[in-house]
Amino acid sequence: MRDSKNWPVDLADPQARRRARAARRTEALRVTALPEWKRLADALRRQIVASVEQDADPALLAAHAERAEALADSLERSAAGKRVALVDSAWESERGTLAYLPFSPIMGSLNPASFGIEIRREGERVVSEVRLNEVVEGATGLVHGGVIAGIYDELLASANLMIKSGGPTGTLTVRYRRPTPLYETLRFEGWVERTDAKKVYAKGHCLAGDQVVSEAEAIFVKFSVDKKTAGWQPPGSGA
Fold first, then answer.
1. pLDDT digits (tens, 9 = 90+) for 135-158
2. Per-domain residue ranges of the chain
3. CATH top-level class for 91-221?
């Protein structure tokens, strides 16, 4: 087997794949340096949207399935486990946009299963404006409540980065005040209310037009700066 830094390794050896994957998870990654990877994720995300909107005859569906299976086979041949750690870096200074968790199921720009949302700083708050489609539909024409909760979890965790703190979610409480519509601009806002020695307390809300459709509160458990977690570094310390 070659050194794990010199890809590829012997992909037929599962232990070699595991060791190489573990070694590469801690390598630095700047998403902006890999536009082809993001282009792939964006194209796959478009296919996910289109696949739930099909109203086609069986022959056309079969043709789509054949091409999709061929692409899946091709991708699997070059797949060797997630290459990098979840942390990219904290904020892109040029745009004030969070460049973090590139494989997150909520905002991961390299994860085609994510919603592809962007989170940015506005003063003392973090903000995400998003139009959600039928991939995340719950009741007809409305966003699934679990999706809303997932966005809040990501958003409020991002608010912690404003004060360079971070850690896992302890509790998350969402109050659904009104139905949340698809295909309308939703503005999620989050902020840190207070902190203590071990916890961060954050709040947020979501606006559809001028109406508050939901609110959230969360408690996060702080990581110590010397926490030894594979692939983790203190938020705000990224390049």
1. 999 999 999 999 999 999 999 999
2. 14-77, 91-221
3. alpha beta
